[in-house]
Automatic annotation (TrEMBL):
Transmembrane segments: none
Name of the protein this chain belongs to: Carboxynorspermidine decarboxylase
Superkingdom in the source lineage: Bacteria
Enzyme class per UniProt: lyase
Gene Ontology terms for molecular function: lyase activity
EC number of this enzyme: 4.1.1.96
Pfam families to which the protein is assigned, alphabetical: Orn_DAP_Arg_deC
Cofactor(s) in the UniProt record: pyridoxal 5'-phosphate
CDD domains per record: PLPDE_III_CANSDC (cd06829)
Amino acid sequence: MKTCTWETLPTPCYVADEKKLKQNLEILKNLEQETGCHVLLAQKAFSMYHLYPLIGQYISGTTASGLYEARLGREEMGKENHVFAPAYKAEDMKELSEICDHIIFNSFAQYEKHREAAGKASIGIRVNPECSTQEGHAIYDPCAPGSRLGVTRAQFPEELPEDIEGLHFHTLCEQDADDLVKTFYAFEEKFGQYLTKIKWLNLGGGHHITRPGYHLEELKKLIGYITDRYHLTVYLEPGEAIALNAGYLVTEVQDIVKNDLDILILDASAACHMPDVLEMPYRPPLRGGFPAKEKPYTYRLSSMTCLAGDVIGDYSFTQEIHVGDRLVFEDMAIYSMVKNNTFNGMPLPAIAVQKEDGTVQIVKEFGYEDFKMRLS
């Protein structure tokens, strides 16, 4: 791997911060040790497998949203490997049954279709507790009216099939323990009769466990209640919490356009390199950046693509920005690399790691062939 400085990194470039990652992982490791729960990396948020050997030193394994993520978790971490998908293709089930410890189905029809193909994997069913705790992010609310995710109580049989060993729900998005507690008790009220019939309960993801101020003791208390009362193994599937605030996106100013305000043209793109900026929408933290008009110099940050709405946001600075300056977006490890794309032929950002001693190593660079191989 090539060693660089922040000034010589190719741009755009994702940089994972090993020190901050370890700080998050220590919190999750201690949670496992104190409660007996199993923490799994939700790869849909963070799939930088170069760091899987490190992550595997702290937590129990990985969870996947389909065959390719499941294969990645097995190949690169090799610990517990779980999978949930709204539906499975028959041709994928043979391999999933060979590489996954838990296979979770989204409906009893899927369970019936694939139960034999699931082999020796522990089988679970995803439920819909019909308890929404989301505020402002309906796109990420599995309990929204008409949701396709999870089986409602009205669709549940009075007796679970004997080979179903676990239940799973996932309803949170960047939330604290109080919302999980509220959701669990709603789940317990509707599905409590099944909890003495199963071996494990998966509380899904969306837990911001490593965020400053998170009510960790409340989470521990809930896990203790579940294990003491029902004698179940508890699983948590955080993705964001593992790499929260542990990554950056470095970009360089290519031009400055004037139209009512000064607009920076960056070689990073919201549409291509940080899609959540447009989807949620989300305003990424910017090192040295402030809310618009708070400091003397305000700029709109945009991209080199032809999409008019490819705008990251308006930020102000204490000093004037020039062509060639580098800007660093923070909290860019999660839902960035996993969602990026090559719209407009935009190059994929390089991927680097900042080691604990401050040195930066390039893990991977991309070029024209990575763009071309997706097309025909």
